[in-house]
Amino acid sequence: xxxxxxxxxxxxxxxxxxxxxxxxxxxxxxxxxxxxxxxxxxxxxxxxxxxxxxxxxxxxxxxxxxxxxxxxxxxxxxxxxxxxxxxxxxxxxxxxxxxxxxxxxxxxxxxxxxxxxxxxxxxxx
Length: 125
Hints:
By secondary structure, this protein is α+β, with helices and mostly antiparallel strands. It is built from three helices and five strands; from the N terminus they run αββααβββ. The chain has one domain (3-114). The chain has helices spanning 3-13, 51-57, 59-65; strands spanning 20-21, 31-39, 75-81, 90-99, 104-113.
């Protein structure tokens, strides 16, 4: 799947491909919550590159590169949902929870298998 095809799939679903802050008001004093979809890593460690790969292996640099405010010296924990599935040929959704402290950052990566017949999936409402 090309980057353009993936972006089109996300657009049909109404999923952002850039960081969007989605913090519920009730959480806003303590945390900021960000969400986006991103292209899955290649699955080839020797040729791995791209934002998803940097987010997994160097999350501080990746989030700063994307201008997500994570503070000066954050402690980062990452959880991968559906990790039993390969990252290859998966669609990855990332959520980043940043404490207003801001020394604590939690990253959740959720994977979804890509199916050739994605057209059958209903659009976002």
